């Protein structure tokens, strides 16, 4: 099995729709640090799991410098963003979204009990 990871920084704004009062219900911004983990049993015709540039373009092209409530069809929590990113890239099995220094969310596909990296 081949494994790669790609780390990118996504700048944007969002507001959370919550069942309780929170300052996060107001529009605010983050510089999210996103790490995407991909795997493949065999390399593609170019000798890659998938192209690092494609990962960057797929994620940054849709999220960077955007208001995430306008471009995502769900409440844009770090957890939901991590799941969404994982679903966008076929080779991706895990995504980590760091919202701030102490706030990190991860999503791992259910079929990845043996995944590493």
Order of helices and strands: EEHEHHEE
Could you describe the largest sheet, including whether it forms a barrel? 5 strands, mixed
Mean pLDDT: 95
Overall form? elongated
Strand content: 35-45%
Rg calculated over all Cα atoms: 15 Å
Count of DSSP H/I helices: 3
Spans of at least 5 consecutive residues whose pLDDT stays below 50 are: none
Helix content: 10-25%
| CA distance, first residue to last residue | 11 Å
Judged by helices, strands and strand pairing, the structural class is alpha+beta
Number of strand segments = 5
How is this structure best summarized?
By secondary structure, this protein is of the alpha+beta class. The protein is built from three helices and five strands. A hairpin with a 2-residue loop joins strand 4 and strand 5.
Describe this structure in words.
It is a single chain. The protein has 117 residues and is of the alpha+beta class. 23% of the residues lie in helices and 37% in strands. It has 3 helices and 5 strands. The protein has a 5-stranded mixed β-sheet with strand order 3-1-2-4-5.
Task: Spell out the key features of this protein.
117 residues, alpha+beta, five-stranded mixed beta sheet, 3 helices, 23% helix
What's the structural blueprint in terms of helices and strands?
Elements: E1 2-14, E2 28-40, H1 52-63, E3 66-67, H2 68-71, H3 78-88, E4 92-100, E5 103-108
